[in-house]
Amino acid sequence: MKQQAQGSGLTLKRAGFTTGFGVLAATLGSAVGLGNIWKFPYLTGANGGAGFLLIYLLATLLVGLPVMIAEITLGRRAKVNPISTMEQLAPKGKPWWLVGVIGMIAAFLIVAFYSEVVGWVFAYIAKAIDGSILSSDKLVTEAAFASLISNPLQSLLWQWGVLLFIGGILMLGVTKGIEAIAKKLMPLLFLLLLLLCAVSLSLDKAGEGLAFLFRPDFSKLTASVVLTAMGLAFFKLSVGMGTMMTYGSYFRDDQNIPVTTLRVMAADLGVSMLAGIAIFPAVFTFGFAPSAGPSLVFITIPAVFSQIPMGQVLMVVFFILAAVAATGAMLSLMEVPVVIFHERFGWTRTKATVVTMLLLAVLGSVCALSNSTLADFKLFDLNMFDLFDFVSSNIFLPVGGIAIALFTGWAWGKQHFIDAISNHGQLQNRQLAHVLLFLLRFISPVLILIVMLKGLKVF
To answer: Which residues constitute the signal peptide according to the record (predicted)?
Structure first.
């Protein structure tokens, strides 16, 4: 599907997603990431199980979903990159284009540190295949992980390898690259998850793992837990950084945006829950304490799989699964600067991708070396990896989300939004638009601001 893109006076032939499944797979790929595997299931179990899930779902409907729908709708209406989208749709003379700039900066900062984590995942596929991390002793798996992240050459090479891999896909274009890969990876993701779930549920203490995940404990639902759920609802759907606006610009004109986003939300939650079912029964069966973050994936998981029949094969499957989850997120993040360079400067897609990769290789290297050469270099008492994570998560993403909500709810115009979301038809979407406008004007930005202030430790 060819579209016309306007950028800095240039007119470029522009590809888009060609099928409804391609739209869904690519958008889901952007939302699903390593957080589905190492963060969301643990937070669910540690904060009240089913009770936390209910709070998360409510927060998603009030915070994440309205902003996601708004961002995609803006992108589809303009069919250009995020900076040009805001220029095109904003009232004349208003600097709303800065929202696109904020998204681009956020994407750069996130890829700078996230590509290093993805590099660890790819490195662990190799380690799982050669069996070097297959040990039930957590001291051994801890030492293996420490050896990887403290080796500057390995850290850089794996990170640059990831950037080359993602860049190679992006050079193929939107249809033959992003969409084609997403249509293969998302079904594979679910198949691998189901395989690991089947194995995990056959273990002796599977019930304890499931109880950790799903047993409701409403006594844990404190104000802090509610804020955690709100933060997850916003960050989990990959909004506020231009990715959904960019992918929205590739949406088909007949795509029902609210229905698509609901499917993405449900599938994204499904991935997180399946990951929890795949991981925590095994963790409890072999007597490990549940944890979140890199320690779960790179230290606990190898120790757990070492005690399961065919554990080495299943460990390879797990790290391939993690790589698949990370790839979709990386594609959407890197696509933001690529399409901006391509359309704003009139560069070929290949040149735009190469420049993006080189910039990220330089910027990302300071994160890759945060556990080795630059371990003692800190700003605001944070190393570069943690600083990039903190600034992007607690400043750029919330500011971007608030700006998109306010622009859609107030500056763009009520009728523009209603027409864009309903394709000038679709009666049910016209009715839904009024509810969304209320949320975008009065509810979502306030709740995102609260999440932002909590992240900045204002309270």
So the answer is: none
Tell me the per-residue pLDDT of 231-274, one tens digit each, with 9 for 90 and over: 999 999 999 999 999 999 999 998 999 999 999 999 999 999 99
Q: Are 64 and 238 in contact (CB under 8 A)?
A: no
Tokens linked to 252: 């088909």
At residue 6, what are phi and psi to the nearest 5 degrees?
Answer: -105, 130
Full-prediction pTM beyond 0.85?
yes
Which token pair is 153? Answer: 């050459």
- Determine whether 350 is exposed, middle or buried from the number of CB atoms within 10 Å of its CB (0-12, 13-18, 19+): middle
Which of 361, 317, 266, 356 lies closest to 60 in space, CA to CA? 266
Q: Which residues, 6+ apart, have CB-to-CB distance to 381 below 8 Å?
A: none
d(CA 73, CA 417): 8
Question: Minimal CA–CA distance to 352: which of 167, 228, 178?
Answer: 167
**261 CB contacts (<8 Å, ≥6 apart)?**
27, 65, 68, 69, 72
Crossing angle of helices 414-422/65-78, nearest 10°?
A: 80
What is the amino acid identity at position 212? F
Burial of residue 90, with CB atoms counted within 10 A of its CB: 0-12 exposed, 13-18 middle, 19 or more buried: middle
Q: Mean per-residue pLDDT for 404-429?
A: 88
Residue with tokens 């993805």: 118
- Answer yes or no: are the C-beta atoms of 407 and 376 closer than 8 Å: no
- Select from 312, 292, 371, 322 the least CA-distant residue to 133: 312
Contact 316, 128 (CB under 8 A): yes
Instruction: Quote the CA–CA distance of 115 and 47 in Å, as a whole number.
Output: 29
Q: Dump pLDDT digits (tens) for 314-347.
A: 999 999 999 999 999 999 999 999 999 999 999 9
Closest by alpha carbon to 64, among 266, 271, 216?
A: 266
Q: Which residue has the tokens 């306030």?
A: 446
Surface-to-core class of residue 136, CB atoms within 10 Å of its CB (0-12 exposed, 13-18 middle, 19+ buried): middle
Nearest alpha-carbon partner for 240 in 12, 455, 448: 448
Give the pLDDT of residue 11: 46
Q: What is the mean pLDDT of residues 154-160?
A: 98
